[in-house]
Amino acid sequence: MSTFLPLPATATWAHEHARRGFEVVYFRPSGDGHHLVGCTTAVEDGRTWTVDYDITLDADWVTRRAVVTGRSDEGTRSTVLQADGMGHWQVDGAAAPYLDGCLDVDLESSAMTNTLPVHRFRLAVGEAAEAPAAYVRALGLAVDRLEQDYRRVDDEGARQCYDYSAAAFDFRCRLVYDEAGLVLSYPGIATRAA
């Protein structure tokens, strides 16, 4: 079983290749869980956007609430996701049965949200797990279900490594995490800046 050091007060990522931009997040304890507040600003396919997020996690790293606000040339929009911690969700107050079984929120705009399932699973080397997530798009904030898989592979020194895949995007890569369980390298998406 993997273990992580305590989260830092803040972390940042430079987004690259798929988009150009920057993400900043602040980590705070919340009762016996975690509170994550962050923002990503980017240019993607010639369009600019910002996404602010406020995510509450329980002690087991299960998403309980996410408030996401996006701004683009089309205006400002917000969406609120609420979860009961057992895989049942509401999106803007309406039941969202298509998200049944999801325990994580995954923001298209964020490299940070790939931290959530890794902390929740605490996989040993060689173990794998499915991590379906409530996936929030950067532009328009549409909420879809995203099937994801994580397989822990051999560490690189003190850094944990996972083979990650999302079949909907025909996407596979190796994610490298620091000692606190935050993504350092997300190929084609982002690199940890601080």
Feature tags:
194 residues; mainly beta; 3-stranded mixed beta sheet; 1 helix; 4% helix
Could you walk me through the main structural features you see in this protein, from its secondary elements to its overall organization?
The protein is mainly beta and 194 residues long. It has one domain. The chain is built from 1 helix and 17 strands. It has a 14-stranded antiparallel beta sheet, with helices on one face. A 3-stranded mixed beta sheet has the order 9-11-12, with no helix packed on it. The two termini are 27 Å apart.
Blueprint of the fold:
Blueprint: E1 10-15, E2 20-30, E3 33-44, E4 47-57, E5 63-72, E6 75-83, E7 89-91, E8 94-95, E9 104-107, H1 115-121, E10 128-130, E11 133-136, E12 143-146, E13 149-156, E14 159-166, E15 171-177, E16 183-186, E17 190-192
Parallel strand pairs: 9-11
Antiparallel strand pairs: 1-2, 1-17, 2-3, 3-4, 4-5, 5-6, 6-7, 7-8, 10-13, 11-12, 13-14, 14-15, 15-16, 16-17
Total separate domains? 1
How would you classify the helix and strand content by structural class? mainly beta
Major sheet attributes: 14 strands, antiparallel
User: What's the shape?
Assistant: globular
| Strand portion | over 45%
From N to C, what is the helix and strand string? EEEEEEEEEHEEEEEEEE
Helix content: under 10%
Order of strands across the widest beta sheet? 8-7-6-5-4-3-2-1-17-16-15-14-13-10
Characterize the quaternary organization of these chains: single chain
Mean pLDDT over all positions? 96
Radius of gyration: 16 Å
Counted by DSSP, the helix tally is: 1
Number of strands: 17
Contiguous runs where pLDDT drops below 50 for at least 5 residues = none
Give the N-to-C terminal Cα separation: 27 Å
